[in-house]
Design goal:
This protein is an alpha/beta fold. It has four helices and nine strands. It has one domain: Rossmann fold. Bound molecules: 1-O-pyrophosphono-5-O-phosphono-alpha-D-ribofuranose, manganese (II) ion (MN) and magnesium ion. One of its GO terms (cellular component) is cytosol.
Length: 180
């Protein structure tokens, strides 16, 4: 698997260090507030697991699975479909949405609108990766781990054809892998 990676952009150590930093910040921000941490499946899973271990106050976890309507290649509509909804009521709760990456911003824009409509008390977005050049929707994360250029990245939750999510680092895929 590793030999299919052209270059490691963010190492395992850098990711773990970042999880500690953001975790410490969120521990302070959410102390005594019992936030609802929402992971956006599937990409957010590795980051969510490592980040939450570094938030040292009580919180609740839940998951949402959404997909861009009509598949990832057609991004223009911005339509998002719910595959799995939350089990938890959002009204009156402090929400922490956890993502692996913001690209066009359409996934998060949809979720933020949905949670506002459901009367969340507060909404914060934390993303490990931000690709500002890809932005279509007007949305910004409150906390960004790393800003990256517009390259095709895999690993640590990010997939190509459902593969590479289990790499402990984030890397650039060799072009021959996706050109074949
Ligand atoms: C990816 C990624 C984000 C979203 C970002 O998820 O994990 O959730 O796309 O793209 P956007 O900012 O353009 O909306 P995807 O829908 O591929 O599902 P996955 O997490 O299961 O891979
Ligand atoms: Mn995702
Ligand atoms: Mg994906």
């Amino acid at each position: 698997m590793d030999q299919e990676i052209k270059e490691i952009l963010i190492t395992e150590e850098e990711i773990q260090q970042k999880c500690k930093e953001i975790g410490a910040q969120l521990t302070e921000e959410y102390d005594g507030k019992f936030p609802l941490a929402i992971g956006v499946l599937k990409g957010a899973l590795p980051f969510m697991a490592d980040l939450l271990k570094n938030i040292k106050t009580h919180l609740e976890m839940d998951f949402m699975d959404v997909s861009s309507y009509g598949g990832k290649n057609i991004r223009s509509t911005g339509e998002v479909k719910i595959i799995k909804d939350l089990d938890t009521k959002v009204e009156g709760r402090h929400l922490l949405i956890i993502e692996d990456i913001i690209d066009s911003g359409q996934t998060l824009s949809y979720l933020v609108d949905l949670f506002k409509y459901r009367k969340a008390k507060s909404i914060k977005i934390v993303t490990l990766i931000d690709k500002p050049e890809g932005r279509i929707a007007d949305i910004k994360a409150d906390i960004v781990g790393f800003q990256v250029p517009n390259e095709f990245l895999v690993g640590y939750g990010l997939d190509y054809d459902e593969k590479y999510r289990n790499l402990p680092y984030i890397g650039v895929l060799k072009p021959e892998i996706y050109n074949r």
